[in-house]
Amino acid sequence: MTPLLHQHARGALATKRLAMRACRPCFTASRVAPRAAGLFVVARASKSASPASSSSKPLYQPTSARDAIETATRVFKEQKDVDEAVRLYRLSLDMKPNEDEARAALYNLGCALAKQKKWAEASESIVRAINDYKLKLAVALKDDDLKQLRERREWMDALARVKGGISRGTKVDLRTEAKAPFRLPRIILFSGLLGSAAIGLVIIIGRLVKSIAGGPDAPDLTESLTNLGVNTVAVAVLSYLLYRDVSQKQEAVRITTREEVMGRLQIDLGSDRVLPLLKFRGQVRPVIVAGTRAFVEKAIKEADSQYINLRDRAVSVIPVIFESSGPTEVDPEDKLRALKKEFQKEGRGFDDTVAAAKKAAAEAAEAKARSRATVLGGLLDADKRWRLEPYAVDEWKAWVLEQKEFAGLSASEPNCYIQVQLDGTVRSSGVGSPPWRQLVDELPLLSDFRTRLMDGVGPQE
């Protein structure tokens, strides 16, 4: 019998293994009984074929879910027709598959959709296989064929929906508590003490009423008044301390929520690689420079004299350019700026001769690092470049405008900077150009022990 399970997915047929799958397909076709001549027709012509020739060939109609999945595997493996494989995997899901077949179909469908770069659909298909058909998450996390998908924001969002996964709200809570690890115990302690003090105050008020009423068994009035004063002060102090910690936590949640939104903003690394900023945490200190094109280019050029020192501190700039809205406004230097921008992407383009020499040395060092292809958390050394280009710029613009309002920056000043720590917290922001020299003085080297112990600790906006 043809095995049905993915080699990592164990189910009711745990003894059966797969020889291949669509990315490495879940079904092998090596033992399938041969079909009558002409029964199987190539489902889809190659991409170079004309529509007419493609439409002249009928689509293969499988007889069962198993048949559909096995055929999809063979089509993908032998004829490299991902489109037809996707069609057949989807068709198998409508043919009343058993649990093992549905798990295999959904997982392989996700792999095939990832090949088509349909990231959201691929993520959803794999999540369904995990949540509904008991596929182990470790299978998807270790599969080399899904490496590019795992870099995408769509996959990170999908993980929040996986059974046993961590939701975005939980991540915010965990990061908030990590910034102030003793706040939650204090809130619990103050809440308990406040409850005890409040109960004691109610009891004391009752005793005070009896003292005022008098009688042979009435408590001592002086003692009741003293106890009333002590408990009243205790309730007031504990209420203030509890209110302060709760308010600080709410503010910290607001800040962390904004930082998590920032972490979902994406960076375009070229060669069809788009990573969320979250992937750069622990390895890059981004400085977002936002404003007009002239301001952004000038601000980045001002970093010339501090370039080497900034790179030693893992500083990278993210330019967010708010273009002029005037439809008739034409910048005669647009082409020149575009050329400079291309040079700056590679760490070149400073006018200063001395700075150019320094940059050449830095490029040689970075090239040496790239040749080693060092990987830290899935991020190549080559990815940690000086200038990181934003992807989906409108999302960046919206976040910058909200952050300016959140940080109390002047709305009338279009140009600003936002400096982010290694751990993804906003360290500082302001209008105008970033204080490059000040950043060099204040930020420890990436190799400094203070970076490992203290990065991100301090006053937060």
TrEMBL record:
InterPro entries: LPA1-like (IPR021883), TPR-like_helical_dom_sf (IPR011990). Pfam families: DUF3493 (PF11998). The keyword Transmembrane applies. Keywords: Membrane, Transmembrane, Transmembrane helix. It comes from the Eukaryota. SUPFAM superfamilies: TPR-like (SSF48452). The chain crosses the membrane at residues 187-205, 225-243. PANTHER family: PROTEIN LOW PSII ACCUMULATION 1, CHLOROPLASTIC (PTHR35498). This is Uncharacterized protein. The gene is PLEST009508.
